[in-house]
Amino acid sequence: MDEPLKAIQYIAENSRAYAKAKAQRVLIENSLRSVKARLMNESDAKTLGDREAYAYAHEDYLIQVRALAEAVEQEEYLRWMLEAAKMKVEIWKTNQFTARTEMKLGL
User: Fold this and answer.
1) To which H or E segment does residue 105 belong?
2) What is the rounded distance in angstroms from the CA atom of residue 58 to the CA atom of residue 51?
3) Distance (Å, rounded) from C-alpha 64 to C-alpha 72?
4) Going by C-beta distance under 8 Å and a sequence separation of 6 or more, which residues neighbour residue 38?
5) What is the pLDDT of residue 14?
6) What is the spatial distance between Cα 2 and Cα 8, in angstroms, rounded to a whole number?
7) Are 92 and 99 in contact (CB under 8 A)?
8) What are the pLDDT digits (tens) for 23-53?
9) Measured by CB atoms within 10 angstroms of the end CB, which terminus of the chain is less buried, N or C?
10) Angle at CA 10, nearest 5°, toward 8 and 11?
């Protein structure tokens, strides 16, 4: 009985961290567009393709991409840890059902 309560407590304690990680990822994803637009505007290139290439190759953009990768890693880690806790509760429920069924059948 202790295991599902621990899993539920884990979910309750870590749901805010997951929400923050997801919000951080969304913020970084959206700021990538701003960084790209700023860099394209600062480029002296004549064509749109050249300005875009400048933006994508710029260190400011690459820093933002690395930040996005870290945010996604954190979000996914927390998401799967929360899923694992949910699975523990489901396993416990299944085991309880099996035990009740076996008692009814006299096994």
Assistant:
1) helix 59-105
2) 11
3) 12
4) 60
5) 86
6) 10
7) no
8) 999 999 999 999 999 999 999 999 999 999 9
9) N
10) 65
